[in-house]
């Protein structure tokens, strides 16, 4: 079976359809569990996409929800079948943790991605050469060139599978753009090419890039560190905050009521950062500084 984004997308669709059918029927997750003699956690895992649903379980749920139209039932069954296709992320199980691979699925399924980066260029904007240098330095568990190459490949695939996002908003600390990552090992072209890629990405309608200038002084990102805040089209889905540590990949699922510090911080950072046009001008200025330093 070929891994792709198709399984993730159909799993997302199945989750939404099942939740909608339950709500229309006027049932809670607890009531579904009681009626089907399941544990409440089983219903929760299915609706959160944490476990696949068998055809037998699906038919039991549809019967309980009053979904009897033959064509509609067949559509549910087909969506469930396609949802079981493995995600493209599983191809990288040898170089990434299960929580991080799960995060990548959530990242792909989100409708809105907001990222603040204090130290590096965000992974979704990195060039291959920049990613190679950053991964070699940042991932303490990486020990071989092969592992580094695999992680770079994963990062580039990650960029490909998020191109259809409705909205991606990046706020990058100016220090991250001025830090000449990869220069000692790979030369000055690394940062030159990296900054040009960011400028190119800003031409995409769904992408916003803002630079947080050093002159802004202290800011909430200094307290919270780098983070990605994911929001989903379905209000029933919890927001998710992702933070990446120096020793490896860690994901943190944060319910809406607990995610507000990150939500609030991003709004504050957005106000402190340069607007998109001024941010592009700032990146061009950094490029000029690079040219003067490395003509």
Order of helices and strands: HHHHHHEHHEHHHEHEEEHH
CATH architecture of the largest domain: 2-Layer Sandwich
Fraction of residues in H or I helices: 40-55%
What fraction strand?
A: 5-15%
How do the strands and helices of this protein lay out in sequence?
Elements: H1 6-25, H2 29-36, H3 40-47, H4 55-64, H5 70-83, H6 98-109, E1 112-117, H7 128-138, H8 145-161, E2 167-173, H9 174-178, H10 183-186, H11 189-201, E3 207-212, H12 221-224, E4 227-231, E5 240-245, E6 248-252, H13 260-272, H14 276-293
Parallel strand pairs: 1-2, 2-3
Antiparallel strand pairs: 1-4, 4-5, 5-6
Helix pairs in contact: 1-5, 2-3, 4-5, 7-8, 11-14
Report on the architecture of this protein.
With 295 residues, the chain is α/β, with parallel strands linked by helices. It has 2 domains: 6-83, 434 Repressor (Amino-terminal Domain), CATH 1.10.260.40; 88-293, 2-Layer Sandwich (Endonuclease, Chain A). The protein has 14 helices and 6 strands. The chain has a 6-stranded mixed sheet, sandwiched between helices. Helix 1 packs across helix 5 (70-83). The longest helix has 20 residues, at 6-25. The model has no long low-confidence stretch (mean pLDDT 88).
């Amino acid at each position: 079976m070929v891994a792709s984004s198709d399984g993730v997308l159909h799993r997302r669709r199945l989750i939404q359809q099942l939740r909608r059918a339950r709500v229309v029927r006027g049932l809670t997750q607890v009531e579904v569990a009681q009626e089907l003699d399941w544990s409440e956690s089983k219903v929760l895992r299915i609706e959160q996409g944490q476990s696949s649903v068998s055809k037998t379980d699906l038919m039991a749920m549809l019967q309980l929800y009053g979904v009897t139209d033959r064509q509609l039932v067949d559509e549910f069954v087909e969506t469930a079948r396609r949802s079981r296709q493995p995600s493209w992320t599983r191809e990288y199980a040898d170089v990434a943790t299960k929580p991080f691979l799960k995060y990548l699925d959530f990242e792909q399924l989100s409708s809105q991605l907001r990222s603040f980066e204090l130290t590096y260029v965000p992974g979704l904007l990195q060039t291959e050469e920049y990613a190679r240098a950053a991964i070699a330095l940042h991932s303490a568990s990486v020990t071989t060139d092969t592992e580094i190459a695999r992680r770079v490949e994963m990062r580039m695939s990650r960029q490909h599978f998020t191109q259809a996002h409705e909205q991606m908003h990046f706020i990058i600390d100016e220090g991250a753009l001025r830090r000449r990552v990869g220069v000692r090992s790979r030369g000055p072209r690394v940062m030159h090419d990296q900054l040009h890629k960011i400028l190119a990405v800003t031409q995409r309608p769904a992408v916003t890039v803002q630079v947080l200038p050093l002159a802004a002084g202290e800011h909430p990102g200094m307290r919270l560190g780098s983070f990605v805040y994911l929001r989903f089209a379905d209000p029933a889905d919890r927001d998710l905050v992702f933070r990446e540590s120096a020793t490896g990949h860690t994901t943190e699922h944060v319910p809406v009521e607990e995610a507000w510090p990150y939500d609030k911080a991003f709004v504050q950072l957005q106000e402190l950062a340069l607007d998109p046009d001024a941010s592009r001008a700032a990146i061009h200025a950094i490029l000029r500084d690079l040219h003067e330093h490395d003509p």
